[in-house]
Amino acid sequence: MLPLRLGAVVSSLILCFLFPPFFCLGIRSFPTTDDDGAFFHYSEAPEYRNGAGCPASSTHTALPSCDPSLVHIAMTLDSGYLRGSIAAVHSVLRHSSCPESVFFHFVAAEFDPASPRVLTSLVRSIFPSLNFKVYIFREDTVINLISSSVRQALENPLNYARNYLGDMLDTCVDRVIYLDSDLVVVDDVRKLWRVPLADARVIGAPEYCHANFTKYFTDEFWNDPLLSRVFSSRKPCYFNTGVMVMDLVRWREGNYRKRIENWMELQRKKRIYELGSLPPFLLVFAGNVEAIDHRWNQHGLGGDNVNGVCRSLHPGPVSLLHWSGKGKPWVRLDEKKPCPLDRLWEPYDLYKPKQVRDRARDQNWGFSSSILVGYAHDLL
Predict the structure, then answer these.
(1) DSSP, res 33
(2) Spatial contact of 29 and 115, defined as CB atoms under 8 Å apart
(3) Is residue 139 included in any domain, yes or no?
(4) 131 with 170: CB under 8 angstroms?
(5) Angle between helices 116-126 and 82-95 (to 10 degrees)
(6) Which residue range(s) make up the domain with 342?
(7) Rounded to whole angstroms, how far apart are CA atoms 171 and 235?
(8) Is the alpha carbon torsion for 357, 359, 364, 366 positive or negative?
(9) CB distance 302 to 182 below 8 Å
(10) How does pLDDT run across 220-262, given as a tens digit for each residue?
(11) Residue of 307, 325, 319 whose CA lies nearest to 344
(12) What CATH number does the domain containing 214 carry?
């Protein structure tokens, strides 16, 4: 007679062979990043509830995302930055006055090592009451438009998913906040949501006009009078595309996806920039951006990309901390070499340290069988 826990494991394997593809699919697509299956080593987040004065939810909409009382946030979701994405979501909920009124739109790559279905299950297990939807981003949509960059990480097709939000999100979603996965929000996100986009502007973002704007494009671009003329009628300033408020109605009407793609197509013929997905956005929008307070993107905390030097906060108040750049706080914390500001990210991290997982495994030998069978059951 098999022990109960061992019997559960054996039973799940028998079901795999007797009833393909349902049970086998559930097991095969369950990803691991270490010997323990680390994708699912996260603590469940606390329940965050709406405070007094939050808008009442509408009950007559056909799609949950069409509720006019919602704040919409779009993020990418992938195995490489999963820990950062979970921390970012946690930070938004923790500081929101109306967390139940926040709707997350997650864009996942079709061929990510963690399938979109697995990522959906993971998010639901960590945030059981979260309003969210996962969209599958087909990499072939953009793969032929991507040119080589100074860093291989910038060539990831998912970096370009923000260009397609107007196409992917439900048409009833007329505004969205786009957030990168390497940041935390330390203020009520509804304040950012309410920023007006005046003069028919399509996006809003903190601008940095002291930056040397010319360095984002090659000499071939600036020496071509037809190309460089694109900025002749506007005063371009650098802005970071990791935090943007986007008017999707104006985006769709102006066909801005195609405008960005046109510059990417030209880049394939002429080398007019070096940095991934940022320059096409600058070419289309720089000089015509709603300037949002700098507190909403204290960026560059990833450190100096060349020397790995830690960076300090910019002067002024802080509503959002952004570890843009090469270094990520979870990597440096795990390596016991954190920058001082990485400690500000740590409270939002829901990943379980290995020693905590080992204790849980010792206490419950049969953890894997319940996950596998439960996940397979969801597929039926």
Answers:
(1) S
(2) yes
(3) yes
(4) no
(5) 40
(6) 32-42+65-355
(7) 32
(8) positive
(9) yes
(10) 999 999 998 999 889 999 999 999 999 999 999 999 999 999 9
(11) 319
(12) 3.90.550.10
